[in-house]
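User: Here's a chain of 313 residues. Predict its fold as tokens.
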Amino acid sequence: MNAVGPDVEPRILVVILNWNGLADTISCLRTLQESTYSNVKILVVDNGSFTDEAESIRKAYGGYVDVVRLEQNTGFANGSNIGLLAALSGPYKYVLLLNNDTQVDSEAIQELVRAAELNPDGGAYGPLIVGYGVNARTPLAGGRILVWRGTSVSHTEDLVKLKEKDEPFTTGWLSGAALLLRTAMIREIGILDSVYFSYMEDTDLELRMLMRGWLLYCVPTALIYHRVASSTDFFSRIRVNSWARNRLILVSRFGTVGDVLAFSVLFFAWVIPTHFMLGILLGSGRITIHDVPRFACSVLRGVAGGVVEIIRR
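Assistant: Prediction complete.
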């Protein structure tokens, strides 16, 4: 594929959400400074961090990034939507939603934009995501959405084989850790739905894209590293609550009656017990059988919240 020359580079807005993650955000910004793509603006949205991390980011990168500080945590969707709305009101052809705990290869943005320019039928473009950290996994290369399960399944492939591919390919799901979105698509289908607060809002957006005929592309020549959460983060009360609530909302919104029934049986008979046992196995003693009441209460609160939201809508 031919390179995107600097004289024809479309304008890009990179949106990074920060919430009590100053060290990760600074590290992410440091890698973005090495990017070969020049026609880019970076916006950091501080989502109500406990301390004034926004000011620390301004001091470190004030001439390089714009920083918006929110007084309280409004959720991932609302925080990201500040960036999406900024992109829609500015001269941006694309907006890159980027997790603050990612490390961006110097040519990743260049490769994503190149793929987008050559495949205008796409609404979103995702890189090859390589995990690092305590629970690092096989590289993610797209996937598919299983509505009846209220979740997505990642395609994991050998890194060496993936690097041999040099063409974007369509897929049924992309990770929200790094997602290049076409602003024309956002204008058509709308921004992230804040009902999710955190988790599953990217899957909801991608389902809406697919329903309107937009394609999702995985770009294996674009490389981004994503720090995988520890087991204690993965099974935190907030995450478990949101995980249960938002999966129920997603199934009720996009699934059939049969999907909702299948999800209900699967969720309570298999998903909850197996996830808790997985937490015990991965937790190395930090998640124990004594956490059953806490885990169960978080799940039930999430389910109740999902039911209330479904009825409300």
